Amino acid sequence: MNNIDVYLRHVIKGTYLRKREREAWIEEMQSHLKDSVKYYRVTGLSDEQAHQRAITSFGTPKELRQQIVRETFMMPPRWFMVAAVLCLLSLGVALFTNMRFDDVVVSTGNPYHWEFIHNYKVVTWLHHYFPLNPARWAALGIMCFMMIFTRKQTDRLAVLVSWIPCCVALLPSNISLTSIIGSQRVIFSAFPIIQSVNIASIYEFVMLILFGALLYLWTDNRVISLTPWLISMTLTTYAFVWRTVQSTLWKWTQNPIFWGQAPVSWGDIWNTFSSLLVHFIGAVLVLHICRHISAKFIRRVKVVV
Fold first, then answer.
1. Last residue of a domain, which of 25, 55, 71?
2. Alpha carbon distance 209, 215 (integer Å)
3. What is the predicted pLDDT for the residue at 52?
4. For the chain, where are the alpha helices, taking DSSP H only?
5. What is the chain's Cα-based Rg?
6. Which of 73, 89, 121, 228 to pair with 31, CA 20 to 30 A apart?
7. pTM of the model
8. Residues 46 and 137 both lie in one domain
């Protein structure tokens, strides 16, 4: 490995580029550097001096890295990652505040005899002023993370509208709707969460498949077409994980602030796993559809040419 290869590795490091993009940038920069080396050799410099002069005149790795990131992403991807982490932390704050606010110790069946647990000022403040819908924070976090894989304006717009199939999940968690059989059902997050996959949810998965294919037709970006699936899978998972954590903490500590969630059963685990499995199968179908669309488009272009 010569000095130019080491230099280019430092330039590309931390740019969040895909493999093909890295190879394309390296190939282009190598071409320019080789031309510079030939030029400095003609001026009488030795091979080592020509390489060093070409690297020095080309620019520092930091300057080139910033230029590559600016031309590819328009803004550094690390800010998208920071935003995603902040959304994840906000999700935890929302879940904890919803659990902790107005807690009671249930000692009897009569609510008048329940003992209220004192709310800390920070919990009260968060309850009044902080957005406490966990589904919104979960969806926003995934959208911020997927911004790392965007390359053009249409990619970013596609990410911003990718929550549409899960719009029911973004309603406040205390809204209840009357189901077909007349009983009350609470809409808390996205597609089946700790519920068995039934015929009704299959239609929702089909809608996700079609929406993912439409995003690919719009953006020509397979990763972006998976954004609705990642949002739905996150909304399916986080509630189960939080319920498991809360019930486990209650079992271990017997602290009343963790009371309120039934222990997770094997049925809950199976229902969550089966839902995620169907999500995974649907995502694979979306990728297969995208590959088929790409192949058909390429054949059509060859025919035209």
1. 71
2. 10
3. 87
4. 3-12, 19-42, 47-58, 61-73, 77-100, 121-129, 134-146, 153-160, 199-219, 222-225, 227-253, 266-304
5. 26
6. 73
7. 0.71
8. no
For the chain, which residues score pLDDT lower than 70?
Answer: 1, 101-119, 167-202, 255-262, 295-305
Q: Is 39 in the same domain as 93?
A: no
Report the first-to-last Cα separation within the chain, whole angstroms.
Answer: 41
> d(Cα 67, Cα 59) in Å, to the nearest integer?
11
CB atoms within 10 A of CB 252: 9
**What confidence score (pLDDT) does residue 184 get?**
41
Structural domain boundaries, residue 207: 76-304
Co-location of 226 and 129 in the same domain? yes
Residue that finishes a domain, picked among 71, 89, 115: 71
What's the confidence (pLDDT) of residue 69? 82
Whole-number pLDDT of residue 260: 63
pLDDT of residue 181: 42
Residue 258 amino acid letter: F
